[in-house]
User: Fold these one by one.
Assistant:
Number 1:
Amino acid sequence: MANIKNYINGSFQNPINNEWIDNYNPSNGEVYGQIPSSSQEDVEQAYQAAKSAFPKWSQTTLDERSRILIKISELLEAHLQAFAEAESKDNGKPISVAKSVDIPRAASNFRFFGNAITQFASESHESIGQNAINYTLRQPIGVVGCISPWNLPLYLFTWKIAPAIAAGNCVVAKPSEITPMTAFLLGDLCNKAGLPKGVLNIVHGLGGTTGQAIVEHPNIKAISFTGGTATGAHIARVAAPMFKKLSLELGGKNPNIIFADCDYEDMLDTTVRSSFANQGQICLCGSRIFVEAAIYEQFKTDFVAKVKQLRVGHPSEATTDIGALVSKAHLEKVKQYIKIAKEEHGSILCGGNEVTIEGFESGYYLEPTVIEVQTNDCRVNQEEIFGPVVSIMPFETEADVLTMANDVKYGLSATLWTNDLKRTMRMSNQLQAGIVWVNTWMMRDLRTPFGGIKASGVGREGGFEALRFFTEAKNVCIKY
Ligand SMILES: NC(=O)C1=CN([C@@H]2O[C@H](COP(=O)(O)OP(=O)(O)OC[C@H]3O[C@@H](n4cnc5c(N)ncnc54)[C@H](O)[C@@H]3O)[C@@H](O)[C@H]2O)C=CC1
Ligand SMILES: O=C(O)/C=C/C=C(\O)C(=O)O
């Protein structure tokens, strides 16, 4: 059994209440370890450790903070294989994805913010004619909370804790209880890299108890959260009256808009990826595909043919394109949407069924599924499914597709396929999304603002936006 412990004040501890949660391997449906079901007392201990570490860490030079973060990055790279195997086992994603995407990006997050903090500058404003100069300090907040989801476990966990620590804060962090393993393994690397004890504290447990205790803690002054929109709304209700800073990265129902003048083969390959990467469990996946009528039938034939070639298999097989979904409950949720699609008179063009993998019959496998819908105004097009399921439908005009793309409660990302520059400019301006990709998908530059509008969240992560979130601006005005 692979048992996990809390990482508090630089050491590994059992939960005070000695209560545990089973940890499942999605590839075979078996329990393979236990994780702490931490209580408010554990969160308080983590908070106290963070509070004690803060005076020194907040005064640690930027060079030293940078050195430690880059060292963590190097250690992650040195342990790539072990971390990728752990991530794949915990989450069900193909090991190839964990090895080429998740763990390298986690390492990049530390390297990026290790470098970024040395370039982070504050502003000054000369009050001309008033004999005064203003300068703005960017001070760390103190103890901050970071709560992350299960779809990109270490990738998103480190996307929060790296900027928080770089900016001089101390952190109480909680990974998803569904995928806690790599966050647990990270603690050891932090010690090896020389991160002072108490700067990062990792408390495991359920959202409604452990997560809730972080959000409710009166002295944890900022919360950075990624996860479902309903949970984000709940966190906002708890945290807002306490005047906490909030960064909420929530769900998406992203349009993938394909015009007839696009580079067809590039579009086709990328659309398969943007639909089904990570079993479709990425908030940025293009789950609503709109295709210009002139190429709709051709696209439908070619897309379905390519999707049928995707191999659903055990995550450890090099040939696997689609691994297991993250949990039994999530598999059931996604299957429920396939049922809803049929009730709504959608046509299942391919997929729609569970897959049994020999030797792993209790794993959570589902065929990649393409549903042809008649209207954007159906549940399959309006609600986040977050699995290997996409819808397709044709459109006639730019105005029509823009209306449909925006006619959804979410506003995270949008992808546009066209070679028409003026159309690109018009549509990029009008699409209601925090991120627009044109002729590409999920091309990431960590300096760029990342986040959504509408029900997709509040605030931006990435680059200096993240460092601004994790600092308080204080203006000093000096009259001379
Ligand atoms: N980034 C995204 O867009 C993500 C979206 N989702 C969506 O959310 C749906 C539900 O997935 P869940 O695993 O239930 O996500 P969730 O939003 O409940 O979980 C995300 C994190 O929040 C924590 N959490 C839950 N309740 C909390 C609370 N009251 N206070 C503080 N922390 C809390 C969880 O323990 C986990 O660490 C998915 O089916 C999917 O549609 C899920 C994961 C990521
Ligand atoms: O920062 C990125 O590159 C990706 C972020 C993805 C999510 O926030 C998500 O899928 O939840």
Note: The pocket of NAI (ligand 1) is lined by residues 147-151, 174, 176-177, 207-208, 211-212, 215, 226-228, 231, 234-235, 249-251, 283, 330, 333, 384, 386 (CB under 6 Å).
Number 2:
Amino acid sequence: MKFDAKSLVSTMAKFDTKPFVSAMASIMVMRTIKNELIPHELLSFFQCGVDHLSRRFSPQFTVVIEEFQGMARNQVFEAAEAYLGTKATVSAERVTVSKADDHKDLSFNMDRNEEVSDDFEGVSVKWKLICIQVDSSRIRHYDNDSSAVAEIRSYELTFHKKHKNKIFNSYLPYVMEIARQIKQGNMAIKIHSNEYGYWNREPVKFNHPMSFDTLAVDEKLQREIVNDLDKFVKAKEFYRRTGKAWKRGYLLYGPPGTGKSSLIAAMANYLHYDIYDLDLAVVGDNRNLKDLILGMSSRSILVIEDIDCTIKLQNREEDTEASNNGHKVTLSGLLNATDGLWSCCAEEHIIVFTTNHKERLDPALLRPGRMDKQIHLSYCNFSAFKQLAMNYLCITQHELYEKIEQLLGQVEVTPAEIAEELTKDVDATECLQDLIKFLQEKKMIKEEVKNEGNVKEE
Ligand SMILES: Nc1ncnc2c1ncn2[C@@H]1O[C@H](COP(=O)(O)OP(=O)(O)OP(=O)(O)O)[C@@H](O)[C@H]1O
Ligand SMILES: [Mg+2]
């Protein structure tokens, strides 16, 4: 018997033939065995019908999560990959292991066609990684030069139909959130720097060890800063509701060596944000500046150090190229870049300006809403000293502390100066004695200067 498969398939498709498909399929299978003559199209049509019927009566529901959506990677697939990596080592039979250059830890994943079970609030689900090999020319996102065969990957998530709502509304968002946390913990922080109008293609791994545990600032100020950062990170909904861009500006000011750059490092390590260290002096013009800020990723810190020195930004009225020592970035350009409408394009930006001379800044830069928080980093008090002694000498108490506390109340000394004294010797007592000598000398110089002033006045 000969089939005109195409016309048979289209004829059957016009009618609701599904209830008959199963029976027909069995007949055809029998005939196939006898005659080996069933055309491919017809068989796959029956196969579809059988699958459809079995799904209809099955209590299971399956969500297919493909790796690509057009050219872009599907974020749900990426999240599932990261999330299942943590489960695979426990419940899969075979796992793959890899490590990317910018990752701190090994990444595990389920192998092809492996299954992983998971439980969420009493609901059991099954994940399966499906990999199909195809001709690479058929896939748009695939680099055709590298291989003739490509793999189309997808996850199948299967669970009981009655849990559909819970899976869509709670479980999948939960998977996305856990994956975000895993990625955040695994990715090394990077520091980006700019040359002219673009960020360097190869950001450097940020290895600064400073943290809020080692930063020596007044305890109360430190708590205030950490609380502010915590509030900012959790405030997505607040920023959305109030129509504000999700960004926060900090101005760090104080004498050299009081920990402004160290605080930025502690912030980046605490939030796990990349740093974009912007050198305004080499930015061509306002347009370049805008492009640079648009080129930053979300969840990052934009740093402009020594804002008073890099370019002349004092006077907005004189905001012309000529009055700006030939620099084409102007104050209004900078304000627009950090403040303007399009600055909302990315989310979770922290902007930090530092200066040794707050009084030299244009008030426009300090207006509330621009610099949300101004943090004064000042000379070392006793509480900050104790932190430094802990960092460098690993001590919390010493008989010389009383003397040091007294001297710290009489002279102005920066944490950087103290840090230098505490690293001069290996022995803690000798270091503290050196420090006392250093503080006494400072005190003497201060008194001499004061006396000279008094003599002049007389
Ligand atoms: N508050 C601090 N806590 C711990 N270490 C500090 C602190 N301040 C300064 N230091 C030490 O002094 C060094 C210089 O400090 P830092 O670069 O943070 O100062 P700064 O305020 O940014 O100075 P500048 O105004 O010159 O840029 C740091 O590498 C660190 O070792
Ligand atoms: Mg600095």
Note: Residues 215-217, 256-262, 356, 377, 415-416, 419 surround adenosine-5'-triphosphate (ligand 1) (CB under 6 Å).
